[in-house]
Amino acid sequence: MAVLRPLKVIVDNYPEGQTETITVENHPDHPEMGTREVTFSRELYVEQDDFMAEPVKKYFRLFPGNEVRLKGAYFVRCTGYETDDEGNVTCLHCTYDPETKGGNAPDGRKVKGTLHWVSAADCVRAQVRLYDRLFNVEDPGDDYEAHFNPESLVVLEDCVLEGSLRGIQAGDTFQFMRQGYFCADKDSTPEHVILNRTVALNSSWK
Hints:
single chain; CATH 2.40.240.10; seven-stranded mixed sheet; 2 domains; globular; 43% strand; six-stranded mixed sheet
């Protein structure tokens, strides 16, 4: 799991200073690929676009009063949020249901959203480079400078990766849940992780 545009979440009813180990499968459709362990804690990160203060229709992620599943962990319900002086959301407040460990509720209630997440207590900081097509038309012809895609390279700083990715080496490859396929850059080191996205998920480009 990797959160590319982090938004802090505080689980208010989770004990301060406590952490626990959560077992997550490496591939949901291939159990033979095994499992790994990740850390759950009171402070987490989710993607910024996994929250809307005023949700649009059919938005099933976090918003005030809504409950979602954190992948492999618990159900959490958003109880509020904080903003800065400019109105930007800086932090979410949630509560968790300790009876839902593993992602299912004993009372049978269902949630429609499952989010990936990273623990603030056990994470790896990384620079992530999102590559896209170089031109914004299929055939730029001789006027190629007019058709450069301004988002052919987007560089994100301070992304967070789950702690199991500590120590990755240049050339290592990963699929990040809900994000796409990534490769550690040739200049990546354990102290300064650099990841390049090679293919996004749900891409219409072959």
